[in-house]
């Protein structure tokens, strides 16, 4: 029997929080954005982190500069993405 889903307030409980690896309690990154499946009961499908996730959230020139600088130096086009289970 599975447990019912836990209800969280995204801004309060998820955004800007540390992601910790359970096996050794190592801090991996901070949550910058969430990928959410819309509907009657929205559901978080992925946790996004890194400059390519944070840039659009900041918006404006600072966000654009963060995103483009990261793309220029890392040569990647995707965001840091961790899928939920």
Textual characterization of the structure:
- This protein has 3 helices and 5 strands.
- The chain is of the alpha+beta class.
- It has a 3-stranded antiparallel β-sheet with strand order 3-4-5. Strands 1-2 form a two-stranded antiparallel sheet.
- Helix 2 (51-58) packs antiparallel against helix 3.
- The relative contact order is 0.17.
- The model has no long low-confidence stretch (mean pLDDT 81).
Brief sketch in words of this structure:
Helix content is 33%, strand content 29%. It has helices at residues 10-14, 51-58, 60-74; strands spanning 18-21, 26-30, 33-37, 43-49, 80-83.
Summarize the topology.
Blueprint: H1 10-14, E1 18-21, E2 26-30, E3 33-37, E4 43-49, H2 51-58, H3 60-74, E5 80-83
Antiparallel strand pairs: 1-2, 3-4, 4-5
Helix pairs in contact: 2-3
The whole-number mean of residue pLDDT values reads: 81
Q: Distance between the terminal alpha carbons, to the nearest Å?
A: 16 Å
Q: From N to C, what is the helix and strand string?
A: HEEEEHHE
What's the count of strands? Answer: 5
Helix content: 25-40%
| Category by helix and strand content | alpha+beta
What are the salient characteristics of this protein?
three-stranded antiparallel sheet; two-stranded antiparallel sheet; 85 residues; globular; alpha+beta
């Amino acid at each position: 029997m599975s447990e019912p889903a836990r209800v969280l307030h995204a801004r309060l409980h998820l955004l800007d929080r540390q992601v910790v690896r359970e096996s050794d309690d190592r801090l991996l990154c901070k949550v910058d954005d969430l990928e959410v499946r819309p509907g009657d009961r929205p559901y978080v499908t992925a946790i996004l982190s890194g400059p390519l996730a944070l840039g659009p959230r900041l918006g404006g020139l600072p966000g654009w500069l963060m995103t483009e600088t990261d793309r220029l130096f890392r040569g990647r086009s995707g965001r840091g993405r961790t899928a939920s289970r």
